[in-house]
């Protein structure tokens, strides 16, 4: 045996497995062995291991000599001593040993009477603190004396169970007497003892969730008073429990949301199911009443509930009310989804019915009147643009008011918008409303806005929740229904009808030239321009809606760089963009087709004016006395320019500048062709050439100063010089021939053959023909001899 203790590894192994008392005795009895094999370095290792089991960390900054041992108690020791210094582990552990050894001996010997000193005997909270500290301390015994540790640990658990049972008995008495402050103290003790489940079970056993059973949806009056009488007692119960939970659980355990979930499941859902009994409630009843019930529940059991401090343990970044709404939505999600689906279907049917009713109401009127009169409500283009811009500006502001303004402010703004709409329609679109009704379109868009606003109110604060994603998808569907329904059931029929009127417009049906004189406008084309303007307003309202409601409210994201849910967001955005583009393309195609037909009818109108108004004597005054007439444009020219002036600017403010330019340029080119053909039907004398030149100058001035389309200006400049072909006296045929041969005079617009056709309309052509041809070709045709 003596030989064994001479081996250092054996000595150290034995020493390492001795409990604290035996180790200190071994050190005192075997001083030589201690000196040779253990020494202070081993002491530090031995007690460092124990201190680490207590949760202490070694630190160079620690100086436990500064700790006043007299202030150290079994209550505060772990608060006062958290670190130890190298070489000072024995001295540090001695403090813990002296503090808890007496308790451990009592537990080991099962001597539990007078377990606590008189100082702590009357304070159960301090007692549980001591018991918890003992439990932590005995981990140092476990290191090298597992048997003693087990005995102490088991005895400690038995004592703690007795202690907890005693607390529960006291809690029962205090709770029955409604001494909730005292009950809260015992809850604090239970949480300190890590007996959270005991505290939770105690509370749950005391909560009696109210049950409502006497609701009959058939006979119940659904007014505000009824719902308040139904929900106010339930809200009072919830508020009472929230206050109690804050008192009992404080910030020790997140209980309030658990209670709220139990309340929703055991009380609130039962009430909702009774109110919306699926066996009794019709679809219309559900669509009408569910939002009313939902928002009343949000008001009573979310927005106006007492605030809870305990909720901070669930999520300190969200408000209590946000947590409550998210919790409610979890349990109400099936009904919300059902409502969204049914409401979307119902919304589409409602829109279709409104358009169908409009078509039925207007069908007879369109057939009877054929929109033959534009009335006296037409205003200038500048006023039309101002009215249109004023309306669209007000329309944009409505969306900005959706979330920030009061209800009265929103009502006032909507009323002002309606006034602007009525003014715009009455002054600018009174006639065309029989085809494309701006008031109806605006009302449909407003209904869509209201429907989306209603859907968004169901959202919770978790932006990525399945419910929120589904709500966004439903809003997207509502907006797409608006576009598709508006396109198929209103815009397409309107343009088809308007184009049909244009196609069927027949100038030959005019009663007389006198009637024509009263009507300087081609009514179907004027109406079609109004239709384009109305369509443009509708497109702009759709674009404003998309930007301010769909993107700003984040129904879909306009930032495709975001990875999360970006694929779905991009799909939704592309889906809506395609629907918008389809609507725009539809209108563009109808506009192109309608304007082409309209220009045809306009040119027919001008051609008819030439045929019925241009007198043969205008350019060939047969009586010398007529030469005393004032030199000015002919009546026909004045009327044609008036017609052009009435129709070339119809699209101003109604569509983009590119379309306006194409429209005006096409009218200019087609009018040029018609004018050329018209000149070639006239007989023009030298004296009448003056009036022809006046007319050509007048047409040129209109194109140059009024229409301002530079691309077609050379055509009319060339026509100005055509007048000179008739002004040259027949005796000066040589000069006439030179003019015909100088193509530069005609801006390169006319070939020599075309100029030759013009000159043939001279009144004296048969007289000057031979001399002119000699100049042009070097000889006359009669001079040619076949050999």
TrEMBL record:
InterPro entries: Sec10-like, Sec10_HB
Domain of life: Eukaryota
Record GO cellular component, one term: cytosol
Exocyst complex component Sec10-like alpha-helical bundle domain mapped to chain residues: 145-772
GO molecular function terms noted in the UniProt entry: SNARE binding
One Pfam family linked to the record: Sec10_HB
Any single GO BP term: Golgi to plasma membrane transport
PANTHER family the UniProt entry points to: RECYCLIN-1 (PTHR12100:SF1), SEC10 (PTHR12100)
Protein name, entry field: Exocyst complex component Sec10-like alpha-helical bundle domain-containing protein
Gene assigned in the entry: KAFR0F01520
